[in-house]
What does this fold into?
Amino acid sequence: MKTAVVTGASSGIGKAIALRLLELEYRVIGISRRRCDITHPHFKTLQCDLCNIQETTALGVKLQQEMQICILVNAAGFGVFQPHEELHPSTIEAMLHVNLTAPILLCNMLLKTLKKHAGHIINITSIEATRSSKFSALYTASKSGLRAFGNALFEELRKHDVSVVTINPDMTDTPFFDALNFETASEPASRLQSSDIADALEQILSMRQGVVVTEITLRSQRFGIRKKTMK
It folds into this structure.
């Protein structure tokens, strides 16, 4: 059975993608800091703190033993949005590692298997990878870095029939905003759902061999954001 690896599989976009891949009859290995609550005979969970380079490298070594990996989805990520001088150095290091370094490491360690199966690398970035926003310098740097990495890696891997796809979602109704002081608007047209990104992934996988959609940007029809009321 073909195997997919999905980081950030315990919630939000990563969980939606893992569930969709199971529906498409893939065996899925879900990576997250906390144990996933997905129960399916073809789902396996591996716990890993992607903030930690040693844990990430050990995860890569473990995944190298899986011989049927044909999809790597880098969906794990987090953001902190505040003046740059207020960010703690540990926050800077953690965000760059989760959002950028960990995906690069996992690609590096799984490329031999992905080449063997003419596989897919799918990087979930953000709309912030395509623009510049106040209080988003670090997050934008991490996500635009992943976008640039994917675009350059595609050029390297074209002759090996490995597709590299970047998905840039607009604000999506997920637990991403739980620790932030703002969230998506309540109006459905002003926010994406995790299933929308899973739909995009399914469309990518349905393309005929030899055709690659290298980048998809998903936007909500309307702009909406709301500040949380302080308790």
Helices lie at 12-23, 53-63, 89-116, 137-157, 194-206. DSSP finds five helices and nine strands in the chain.
